[in-house]
Amino acid sequence: MSDSEVPLRYINLYGPPLKHADAKAGDMMKLYPDHASTYRGRLLVSFAHVSQPNPDDSDRFVVKEVEDEDWEALKPPLTRYVLRLSLLAGQDLPTVRAKTGLPARLFVVVAIGPHELRFEANAAKNGSIVWGLTQEMKNIVLASDLTQVPDIIVTLCKETSDTDDPVGVSFARLRAGDVVARGMAPAVTWLHLRQEICRKGSIPVGQHPGSLLLRMAFAREEVRVHIFQCKGLVVDDLKSKGTLPDPLVQVHFNGVTRKTKPRSRTLDPLYYESLQFDTTIPAKAEYAGEVWIQVVNKIGFNTVKYMGEYRVPLAKCTKASTVPYPSWVPLTKSDLMDDAVAAGQLLVSVQIIEHPTAEDRTAALPSIVPECREAYVDIIALGVRNLKNNNLLHIQNPFVEFELTGLNSTSGENNIQRRTKASHEPTSKNANFLERLVIPTRLPIDILFAPQLVLKVYDSTLAGLHQPLIASCVIDLTLKLPWSPSYEPPQQQAFDYHIDAAKKRSKQRRVQPKAETPAIEVAPSNGDSKDEKHGITETHDDDGTGIGVLALPAVSFEATDESKQDPAVLHQVQQAHDRRLFASVQDAKKKGHVYFVSDPNAMVSSSFTSPDDEAHALDSPAYYAGRDWWLKVPKRRELVLLPSLEDVIRLKIDKAFTDAIELSKEIDTYHDVAAAAMKCIVLGIENILDDDWATMQRVNWGTVETVGDESAYVLAIADKLRPYVPTLRSMLSSLYFTNFCDKFAASVVPKVLQSIVKCKRVNHVGTQQLLLDVYALKTLFLNLPVMGKEGEVQIVGATTVPARYTKFVSNEMAHVEAVLKLIGTPNEMLVDSFKIMWPEGTAENFQSILNMKGLKRQEQLALLEALGLQQRKAPPAAAKQMIEGKMTDMTESLKSNMQKMAKASNPFNYINTTN
């Protein structure tokens, strides 16, 4: 029974030299290999401890044949090393005699396993030799595990006629692991040799074996060029679909060329490949060669056509153990005048790995494909306009082809293509398609890697056999990703325009009747008719209901005895009232609005289809003379109608008492109570969300390794708000629900940034997860005013999201996303990104970002110095407060507008006094 088994490993063998060795000394070296001078090979072995042997086996060694299907797969991993040695001089070297009796010339051999370097022979003068030589040996394939790598043996030899087998005089052994630990730029040291005891008499008695002044380096240096993608490649002779290039990238460095796989028929290829160069780099990278990157078009089996290039000095490349953050660089090509012509862009990063560890040597190349999430690209293809003739040929049946390049498509395609149908209606140059195309794909979370949507317009001629290219363009998806800080919702500007226009029209309809209220004039009594006596003239322009043009009889509103007692006048007033009311409500029904009617037996009672309709009425119809029913509305609307009630009462009573009608105190009381109620409601929502913000702050964002769905605290916030807000909306009028939305935005939305600032160190992956959470919260907040109890978006009646609320939430969340993007920005790009994304930011703001990135004090000082801003001394908590207190101007304006609703200094004053 085997308890444990050791994986296969190499055992290195050492012993005496093969020739000219003393037998007794050779036996000693065979018995004690640590003192041997020569490498004699290696064994591939494995061990197993058998605790319960088979009783049939004897106590002697048992030889069995072990069968295994794949021995090669079980071998230890191998890697390529570089041995570099600078042999400067030697001193205290022994005087060795040749067979002729003359002093023999000495040379040095450096060996590691079967590989060796040999330096030229020189004659020693006074025991010293100056070599001043440097040699290098590449592609030394040995085990990746340094404990299985043979020792480096430096041997001082004498020159003989047998050049194949040098005769060693003295030697020294160095463990490979110790040499690797010194790096590729070690210090110059003296190496003291010891005598080769297997060759007696080679060193005269009383002489030293010698010492060598040298610098030795044994390690692996590697340059990796990470090719991500290209965009906007330029082709001179692009005429049809078949002439699109098949671009590939080839990289030249130190005489070695590596190539990516070609991408088929595209100008915006995605590669996501890493090209590896095992090479050596000078101690000063300024003396190293350039990394030459070429983009070529593969035409045939061995034929390529130059498209563009980019050169980068190795000194500007990044020394790192992980993949550096890429950047977009311009591709250029030279014309006949040797001028640089733009040829597109390349997303690339170059990585230098010095002295990689055993893990680095054995690990496979890491994947550079970015984190992606499921998404759909929704395209509405309406048509084309004003197409021009193609090479004097008339346009016949144009169609549009959409191509989304990507290696992460759900269908497995490299380039996902969708095309419309060919159309020539109404005309070929202005064809309509009216199609919707949906592309399921996976899009990167980091917007730097966002692919591009390529749009090409072709003309289908000769029954589709010939399809010449007419025009093309590229749509950058960076602004289309919902999780992008610069995301622009589809047609948002058009929606905002229509919403603002509708509000202006509604405001004009409300203001116009007040301006056109009939004037009451008392003419002197001169025996004229009653109508002329009272001087009543009623003029009203048509507001869309058709009432303004009706020839209605004049109605007196003075409290005269005649009007109170005359049945004809009363009937006339009632008739005018009914006609105007009926026309107004019928127009409201056509527009989809419902208005309140106090009389259940009125002719318009059928306008209410259900009791719930009454709760969703938004505004009242225009006020007309004689419409006193307008004042008899449910209690929930009394607050809105108090100012109008004051005006109407003044019109109804005698002029002598109009100044006594003053409802300003009641109006202020209603405002105070309403403001206090709204404050309590929003405060209650804040309290129930405190636990969720605390949960967010307790997450260790510095150790997050993967980006998943929305975090648990986001789901908890959504579960609490979804059933609460719809209930509140059904209980409040539109005016106060809008006020609630404003207060909610000003109080709860800034909590997102405040909670993020209170989090400790946030790594790059944690930043991406927080961006995803912020996008989910932004969507939740924007849809909250029209969301149902189950989370679905419902447009209740004419309810829409207030434009001011939408604008405030979008701006605040955009500020949060900008802060997170700065936290996730690499250090070398942080200063430039901060100046672009936060131009008004101060040194304290910048240091807050550095604190959340978890940078050390020295790193922060270096970046602050690079930023060029003077840091002011502030309390310890001031750094975070700078971001927390960075409220936008809209926030301050919104708070000011809400405070004006309550004219009293304390909204609870009236409540306290009444108690």
UniProtKB/TrEMBL annotation:
One of its GO terms (biological process) is retrograde transport, endosome to Golgi. InterPro entries: C2_dom (IPR000008), C2_domain_sf (IPR035892), Vps53 (IPR039766), Vps53_C (IPR031745), Vps53_C_sf (IPR038260). Residues 528-543 have a biased composition (Basic and acidic residues). Residues 204-329, 356-497 form the C2 domain. Coiled coil: none annotated. GO terms for cellular component: cytosol; GARP complex. Residues 503-543 are annotated as: Disordered. CDD domains: C2. PANTHER family: VACUOLAR PROTEIN SORTING-ASSOCIATED PROTEIN 53 HOMOLOG, VACUOLAR SORTING PROTEIN 53. This is C2 domain-containing protein. It comes from Aphanomyces astaci (Crayfish plague agent).
